[in-house]
């Protein structure tokens, strides 16, 4: 799966680079956002390894949630990872699978890396654009070799060795 994902991701970005180079044009916002598989990769990365692990809220009145009383004044921590890795919401949730976003709706309450509702992050589109630009240039202009490492999931997602990687420019 990872090999297929990488090749599809690289192919999509190389096609865009070649098309823009042949036309003598520079890349625009719409070009980056048109990279549909790249957007799926970004979405899946946010689902599996969200930077924000959760949010805390204070109950302003007594609230009942699924038979549990949350008294006024109590603080509740919404742990995003528990939602993003729920096997009732995502098939094989611990597996990195950007293909799942081809048909899945991102506007549901089960995908919350940028919050939701009135508290939706206003930088959502900018963050996606920045990730798209970085990934586009990484995959089209560089090659890399990553050393073996292990994922640590708690309290945040990170690589135990700090993600050792050697990057070199393509010829």
UniProtKB/TrEMBL annotation:
Its cofactor is heme. Pfam families: p450. One of its GO terms (molecular function) is heme binding. Heme binds at residue 121. Pathway: Hormone biosynthesis; Plant hormone biosynthesis. PROSITE patterns: CYTOCHROME_P450. Keywords: Heme, Iron, Membrane, Metal-binding, Monooxygenase, Oxidoreductase, Transmembrane, Transmembrane helix. GO terms for biological process: brassinosteroid biosynthetic process; brassinosteroid homeostasis; sterol metabolic process. Signal peptide: none annotated. Belongs to the cytochrome P450 family. This is Cytochrome P450.
């Amino acid at each position: 799966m990872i090999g297929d994902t990488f090749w599809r991701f690289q192919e999509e970005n190389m096609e865009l680079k070649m098309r823009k180079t042949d036309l003598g044009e520079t890349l625009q916002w719409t070009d980056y956002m048109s990279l549909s598989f790249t957007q799926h990769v970004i979405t899946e990365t946010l689902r599996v390894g969200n930077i924000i692990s959760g949010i805390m809220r204070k109950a302003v009145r007594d609230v009942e949630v699924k038979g549990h009383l949350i008294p006024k004044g109590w603080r509740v921590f919404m742990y995003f990872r528990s939602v993003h890795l729920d096997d009732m919401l995502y098939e094989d949730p611990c597996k990195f699978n950007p293909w799942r976003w081809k048909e899945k709706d991102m506007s549901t309450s089960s995908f919350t890396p940028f919050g939701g509702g009135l508290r939706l992050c206003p930088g959502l589109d900018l963050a996606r654009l920045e990730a798209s630009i970085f990934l586009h240039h990484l995959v089209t202009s560089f090659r890399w070799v990553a050393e073996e490492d292990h994922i640590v999931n708690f309290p945040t997602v990170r690589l135990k060795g700090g993600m050792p990687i050697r990057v070199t420019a393509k010829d």
